[in-house]
Amino acid sequence: MKENTAGSKNSVSRFMATAAPLVLLLVLALVPLVGPGPNTIRLLFISLVWITASVAWNILGGFAGQVSFGFAVFYGLGAYATAISLNAGLDRVTSLALAALVGATISLLVGLPTFRLRGPYFAIATIGVSEAVRVVMTNLAVTGGASGYRITEKGAFNQHLHFYMALGLAAAAVAISMWIRHSKLGLALISIREDQDAASDLGVNPYGTKLLAHALAAALAAAAGGVYAGYSAFVHPNGVFGFDISVAILLMPIIGGIGTVWGPVIGAVVYGLVQEELIASFPQFHLLLYGGLLILIILFEPGGVLGLINQLFRFVKARTGVGAHT
Amino acid sequence: MAPILKLDRLSKNFAGLAAVKDVSFEVEEGGLFGLIGPNGAGKTTLLSIIAGSIQPTSGSIVFQGHEISGAKPYHAVRAGIVRTHQIPKPFRGLSVRENVEVGLRFGRSKRAGDKTNNAMEFLDRVALAHLHLMPASALSVGDMKRLELARTLAARPSLLLCDEVCSGLTQTEAASILELLCDIRRAGTSILYVEHNLKAIMSICDRVIVMNSGQKLAEGPPEAVQNNPSVIEAYIGKAAHK
Fold it and tell me: What is the DSSP pairing of strand B190-195 with strand B32-36?
């Protein structure tokens, strides 16, 4: 009887874990049809782009524990690759696929030397790579240098199309993240995060596994940059390769809950909303807010917003004896 | 019986300091081979060289007829050499069962006739099955040592390298771990057992090598080694021996 109850509880949990994201996806897909203003759609679009970038970073930084400050490289290269492809006459989906391919390829070039380093040395190396790429792109005449690169729109601007592309990509990123967490690759990444030498002593190839995770993450981050470029129709080096972009991509999973599937999603939504709402009124205030938020999270809840929610559920459960959260 | 492992003049220098110097020995297939020595003798360094964690300065390691010196640890695992650690290294963010899954999914492929194919069966062998959902970080030291053994067994070694599995354990815990090692050996796995504690190693090994200051001091059956004057001297000192 007890086993039956536990079994049905597990089935309910499994159903909820599958159904809840699908319901959320359906609700988001219906939003444009309800007729909200273009500003709301824009806000959702930005949040979806950040969700993809945040989930991408978490594959390497959260699951594998490799803290990279260089994801703006892939985001920016994806944006430029998409812009160039669109101007060359390729369709949007092919352009995004190409951007992802560029991101994955460059990730191997970055990863081959940097994954020979560990911990803070790896993090510092990624800062160097990020700044080097930004400087090169600022001086590269063929892509407009510091003046940026404009996409020549061939038809009328369709905000809903961009929204659905961002939604599709974010859904794919979350699905990939969920798959990785429960796959053999996920097990290898987490074991590397916990103790790289012990993982290697059990047959895990840390170098190859990190390269693979990096390539997957870079492909997603590049596609996120591509979706953003398609929407904005203009990219410039400081806008997509800036160090603040790298920090933002790293900050979102930490705010939401690093190393989890849903933490980076929550973090990206919090970041997207705070940034968009505050940046216009108080151009520097959002930085203060992120800094403060980061200090509070590190000090009091390293599990981020998701950790806080779990604590709240445990508290309610302890008080009432119901409301178990899985 | 043919040797499963053969070391020939193996050396390792750290910035001019010889941690292991010209060590040669053979481990027989299916044997339980003890490696003892006082602190700083070079036992763990030697184990790490065999497991691929440390690259040797010179010498050769032949495992099942193949030269493997300089192989990466994950290549050694796939060849059939798996090690435990003196200080347990559990993956703290994973459950007890997931820890074993790492060995099961990344270790050597299943051998012919091997019926064990599930993490729970390996946990059952070390009496940890009832704790499979618990985070590895919540285990006691004794249980962490058992978990180390379970996940190394899950990687299906032909040669198990055990590094001081009894250190830090109570007498009862140590006795049950030693019994477990005998079971593992009976199941067909060769064992190279590094230990600081003479009594523990003498009770279960069929052959013992003694190291001191990075060099081989003595080799032979436990009784002969135990009564060797240079071994006694290395352990309790010249003055005390006199």
Answer: parallel
CA of A246: how far to CAs of A250, A276, B77, in Å?
6, 17, 37
* Concatenated DSSP letters of B173-200: HHHHHHHHHHHHHHTT-EEEEEES-HHH
Does B102 contact A187 at a Cβ distance shorter than 8 Å? yes
- B100 by Cβ neighbours in 10 Å (0-12 / 13-18 / 19+) ranks as buried
- The closest of B48, B33, B138, B147 to B89, measured between CA atoms, is B147
Tokens (6 digits) for A51: 């969700």
Q: How far apart are CA B54 and CA B85, in angstroms?
A: 14
Q: pLDDT of chain A along its 326 residues, tens only?
A: 444 444 555 666 666 677 787 888 888 888 888 878 888 899 999 999 999 999 999 999 999 999 999 999 999 999 999 999 999 999 999 999 999 999 999 999 999 999 999 989 999 999 999 999 999 999 999 888 899 999 987 888 889 999 999 999 999 999 999 999 999 999 999 999 999 999 999 999 999 999 999 999 999 999 999 999 999 999 999 999 999 899 999 999 999 999 999 999 999 998 888 877 777 777 777 677 777 877 888 888 888 888 888 888 888 888 876 544 43
Domain boundaries, chain B: 1-24+60-70, 71-159+166-190, 217-242
Give the pairing of strands B58-63 and B207-212: unpaired
Q: Which fold has domain B71-159+166-190?
A: Rossmann fold (3.40.50)
Using an 8 Å CB-CB cutoff, list chain A residues near B77: 201-203
Q: Which of A13, A182, A201 to mutate to test the interface with B (most CBs of B within 10 A)?
A: A201
C-alpha distances in angstroms, B26 versus B8, B59, B163, B223? 9, 14, 18, 19
Nearest CA in chain B to A203: B74
